[in-house]
Amino acid sequence: MTDRTTYVTFAGVRRRGWTDSMVRDLLGTPDVQGRDPRRWSLAPLRLYLLARVETVERTPEFAETSALCPGRSSAAAAYAERRRGAVLAAIRAEPIEVPRLPGPELERRAVRHRQLLGARRPGGSGGGPAGKPPAGGSAGVPAGALVRWQVTYLRHVLSRYEMLLDGLYGETGRGEAERLLRRRLYEAIAAAYPALADECRRRTVVER
Asked: Dihedral of CA 62/67/70/76: which sign?
């Protein structure tokens, strides 16, 4: 998730492919403006919240205005490609830390997570061969189901790494980055829990 205190300069917005008229019409007044005391330039300092810029970039108005601005497409494409490369590099380099839990504790948490998921579904049924998972723990749960639930739980725990995808919208590199991130997460889970490796490999193929 984008840091709500991160700003981008007017020049930075332009590097993202915005034109002057797009900044004026779609962003309006800068979130911070004045004179930069660190510089002797008389040019005003204009800063825009990055989160607001990215929100506008996802709107139909932005897409429509972009299509009408000559030269904007090539600048936007160049920025998108740079962003895609940076995100992919970050995903490859990021250490994936999987929590190491004793077997019984992981099973207990996986069953509890499954119960919570089932409670959110219409009718409150947890699914699985016998419907709702047993309230008392993993006793009576088929081994195959328990393995799947453990992988699902660990994948949920690691969902914080999805923040690495911030800044990729639409089709520009998003799918490629999501596949790379999923593969790295499942590889990390398999390395931490070898008994779950087969299910992790299966999901890597199925979720491509």
From this structure: positive
